[in-house]
Amino acid sequence: MSTLRDLRTEELTYVSGGYCGWGNSYRQPSWGGCFSINNTRIGAQIGATAGYVAGVFNFAVDALSGASNGILTSDLKDIGNFIKIGAQYGAQNGINGALSLYQNVLSAINTSLQSPTVLGITFPPPSASQS
């Protein structure tokens, strides 16, 4: 029966997939590549989140104001549409563009909440195209 031992550095490197650019060593990991940020994918995820937040806010505003079932159903459909629009916007404009969109959504929500009559917001907010 063999005993357990600590792995040597070379063995740890092999089982972990290799170095990924740290220090003076670089070896392509066996799992296909170093971690990298995919600007398009992450931008799309952030943009979709911005759309989701905008859609849920609009639904909540209408639900709390006693809107009809037809309006609430439309709001629910809008959530899906806003997610798609936000994902497309984020994919086209990358992480920075998507973050700007998200900040504009939060700003529009904040402005709406501070007004005497809380209303839903447009998506994307007008300021998103100006950023």
UniProtKB/TrEMBL annotation:
- The name on file for this protein is Uncharacterized protein
Provenance organism? Gluconobacter wancherniae NBRC 103581
